[in-house]
Amino acid sequence: MRICVVGAGYVGLVSAAVLAEWGHDVTCVDNDEEKIAQLQSGVLPVYEDGLLEMAARNRSEGRLHFRVDLAQALTQRELVMIAVGTPAGKNGNPDLSAVWNVVKSLKECSTGQITLVIKSTVPVGTCEAVAEFLYHDEERFDVVSAPEFLRQGTAIRDYLAPDRMVFGCQTSRAKQVMQDLFRSLECPVIFTDWHSSEMIKYAANAFLALKISYINLIANLSEKVGGNVQDVAQGVGLDRRIGPAFLKPGVGFGGSCLPKDTRALVALGEENGVNVWLLRDVLQINFEQRVHIVKKLEEVLGGLEGKKIAVLGLSFKPNTGDVREAPALTIISRILERGGKAAAYDPVVDMEALSREIPFIPALDPYDAVSGAHAVVFLTEWGEFAKLDLRRIRGLLKFPLLIDGRHIFDPQALKALGFVSQSYDSRPVLEFMSAK
User: Fold this and answer.
1) Could you confirm whether 257 is annotated as catalytic?
2) pLDDT at 426
3) Mean pLDDT comparison of 84-98, 185-199, 215-229, highest-scoring range
4) Which of 17, 66, 157, 316 is the most buried if burial means most Cβ atoms within 10 Å?
5) Which of 145, 77, 135, 146 is nearest to 111 (CA)?
6) SS3 category, 186
7) CA gap 350, 364 in Å, rounded
8) Band (108; pLDDT cuts 50, 70, 90)
9) Which of 28, 127, 169, 257 is catalytic?
10) Which of 166-175, 334-343, 352-361, 420-429 has the lowest mean pLDDT?
11) What distance in Å separates the CA atoms of residue 213 and residue 219, rounded to the nearest whole number?
12) Phi, psi of 224 (to 5 degrees)
């Protein structure tokens, strides 16, 4: 097929690369001229495992192209896939201006029968509104809701081996096109209406957010009563009705999906008179997990004025450079607000660029960040952090406080090395403070 993918972010780039890998002629278009120039020169604006090699291979073989001009990119395309951003706007509602810009251009510039696939996360009712707009003059468009369920860091693997595919289709032709396009994938496929397809995306992400906030609430309760939340999470997760996924306590969720989509569901509920207090509490608990880290630093160090804190991990999860809604940004900002200094390191994030927005000290490596610090906080579970020389870390710290926000280390091993450690099992910290 001749396909146009609009949007050169995580979803758009992965979609374009995989579709080209399957043998389709794919043009990926974005209005960011600098981003397209990077892509045309073989440089990716995002970090995603395996994507650079796949994109380069298909560019060299003539199946993958990058353009800025949307009207030109839409010429003689049979299928158009929208994968532009829908950032949170006022009251949590997504900003759909980029989606509508594409739709309007499509109506003006395209010719022939077009299948329009909306992969961007959009509120319930968007596909219906788009269809009404496109169908006003003629019915040469088929609109499909095809929500994505990609995880940053494993996006290509998720695209090639998904848990399920969901399509909101209104015509038999659209259903057939989706079956043909994704016929190589072996997974459950749900064909449903537009509204249900759009709701599935939000409902799935909000439920994952709920599980994370739930186990963090249990972690805080366990801390107060002297329980071990790791054992609690394991015992709960072994129930087949619940499962262990997303029952890992820590500093909470971030990224471009779970926070934004949960807020969007809250907005949808409020607009339709549905009580959504449960989802509001999910977001509040998630925010408080970040505050909890800073409070623990203040509690043990006797305040943060003039104290240097080493922050290891800036991205919201490992294997990505994405810092959108990352817990580290909130925590660093609060450290600075309380008079502290923050030195930070991340193996992928552009720290120099980020430090111009939040004035932390970019470190050359983890040991550079920790040198002379009063505490070290781990906020992303990068694999390289688990291999650090903890004795060296202990020797570089002015005060041996280590807060493991992602459960990278064994608390008893940290205690044996002389750390005052805290990873949602606060007993080592309390023992140390009692000894003082």
Assistant:
1) yes
2) 41
3) 185-199
4) 17
5) 77
6) coil
7) 12
8) confident
9) 257
10) 420-429
11) 10
12) -70, -35
